[in-house]
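pasting tRNA (guanine-N(1)-)-methyltransferase for the record, 256 residues
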Amino acid sequence: MRIDVVSIFPEYFAPLSVSLMGKARERGILDIRLHQLRDWAHDVHHTVDDTPYGGGPGMVMKPEVWGEAIDSVCAEPPPDAITPRLVVPTPSGRRFTQQVALEYAAEPWLLFAPARYEGIDSRVMAEYASRLRVDEVSIGDYVLAGGEAAVLVMVEAVARLLPGVLGNANSVTDDSFAPGPMQNLLEGPVYTKPPVWRGREVPEILLSGHHGKIARWRRDEALRRTYERRPELLTAVQDLDKADRRALADLDPDLG
Ligand code: JA8
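structre below
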């Protein structure tokens, strides 16, 4: 997969050379190209922002600079006649979820355009929407100082889904067996050795070797944690079995 990122802080993306994503790049699974937005600003100060029409606080990123940057990145296409999916992080975007990460992982080419200041002149998104698929996406309901951190989050969520990026030890296929964001259940607690640490014991069932009972216990813990921390997820959980309904009824008689 090819990923281009255009930013006024390309050095912000140093973590993309570490660990999982560093290895994926070395192996050629990920082709990440970073670009300095100011390279497409032609005035002496390499200006990328200007005051907002209509007044108000802060500055808005200039359309001409982004337009030249995106045109130029798109003009260096991979072998086929493909175009990138343009991803613009913004708190006013559609929510980036695991489902969106799976969608992006199936794309050959992503182009991220993280903004600073009050965002990018909206005509840029309108212009490219007539040529590319343009997604304005939010990673959550909080405001960052810029879109760079959101790009790091999204690239990591996508990269771990690419074939060959994860080892067998923590395979993506496990995501669909263990409770997780895909099933609308939170993961329950996990433990490793020693069996007693500072007087705290590992739940006995996990040491029992009864694989069926362990699976049931984990499911119950996942249901309990989801009920306590993210109750809104439970309304969306599919295919609850009889034991699931009993576990939920124990937590809250209105459920299950
Ligand atoms: C921000 Br400025 C800026 C640009 C993108 C994003 S995504 C998010 N949660 N906050 C702020």
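The helical segments are 19-26, 63-74, 98-105, 122-129, 148-159, 211-229, 231-234, 242-251.
The first helix runs from residue 19 to 26.
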